[in-house]
Amino acid sequence: MKKLSNFAALNAGVFMVAFGIHVFRNPNGFATGGVSGLSLLLYSALPFIPMGAIMLALNLAILALGYALLGKEKAAASAYGTIALSAMVWLMELAWPIARPLTNQKFLELVFSVLIPGVGSSLVFKAGATTGGTDIVAFIIKKYSSMKITTAMLAADFFIASAAIFIFGVEAGLYSILGVCMRSFLMDSIMESLHIYKIMVIISERNAEIKEFINLRLDRGATVHRAYGAYTKDEKEVITTVLNRRQAAVLQKFIKDVDPKAFITISNSTEIIGNRFGGFE
After folding, report:
1. Which residues pair with 237 in a beta bridge?
2. Whether pLDDT at 38 is above 80
3. Over the range 134-160, which residues count as b (16 or more CB within 10 Å of their CB) and which as e?
């Protein structure tokens, strides 16, 4: 079921990226980084070649590099997104040719050209894949350095956006650079929200059942320590556990059912290191 959900999220994300590229980026000359931006620059010099075909050729070359440096599993996950995105853009070009921007509001179109693909890319990343191109370059940079993915993508995309000044003019080039910055901040925010974990601290009279539920039903661990109340001086057993959003909601419901008087504090964390949550890179 989880694999099916990931596949659906992956395809939804790829479609959003393709839609944003075809409808908003290309007609305005917004080369806001990535292989789509580089393909747009090349398409201006080679208009007889479909942009989807240019994207596919560039993505396959970068995918081969990713295979060599990131390994078979990561490259395989990226291969589908890479080919699907190029194919979707190509099909949209054939089925719905767009010769000019939908509106005369450049900034409004820039916002949508960043927002829609940004959300789509985040869904693709969440599914454990990429849409190829500079996304793969960013993963390579992240693997061999301490740079965050969004920072690596910003560095990889900035040069492409700057080149738009010389091809599409100063206005389009400056909008492209602004779009790269907006995309980086947007994805940083979205990806952090997608990776929020819940830290739950629980004080209850039914700790044995709660610990068993966390270990066996949620397949998670917990830390237990003893504490006493500052006022009552009563000694209590305190459970601390880290869960994802869904698991936290399930545990809350379970505790409410077995011990409605339990005391629970919940806080958010966007970065957990160790014990199946990740590690130092």
Report:
1. 226
2. yes
3. bbbbbbbbbeeeeeebbbbbbbbbbeb
Note the helical H segments in the chain: 2-20, 26-28, 34-45, 51-70, 72-95, 106-126, 134-143, 149-168, 170-194, 207-212, 245-258
Burial of 87 (0-12, 13-18, 19+ CB in 10 A): middle
Q: Which residue matches tokens 């059912």?
A: 257
Interval 116-172: pLDDT, tens: 988 888 788 777 677 766 667 767 777 777 776 667 667 777 888 888 888 888 888
C-alpha span between 65 and 70 (Å, rounded): 8
What average pLDDT does this structure show over 84-99? 89
- Greatest CA separation found in the chain? 81
- pLDDT for position 105: 92
Residue 70's region, left for phi above 0, alpha for psi from -120 to 50, else beta, is: alpha
CB-based burial of residue 234 (10 Å sphere; 0-12 exposed, 13-18 middle, 19+ buried)? exposed
Q: What percentage of residues in the chain have a pLDDT greater than 90? A: 25
Any idea how long the chain is? Answer: 281
Residue with the two structure tokens 């160790």: 274
Query: Edge-to-edge, what's the strand order for the sheet holding 235-243?
Result: 223-228, 235-243, 197-203, 263-269
Cβ neighbours of 117 (radius 10 Å): 29
pLDDT band at 3 (very low <50, low <70, confident <90, very high): low
Q: Which residue has the tokens 């944003």?
A: 20
Give the integer Cα–Cα distance in Å for 193 and 147.
Answer: 19
The answer to whether 17 touches 32, Cβ cutoff 8 Å, is no
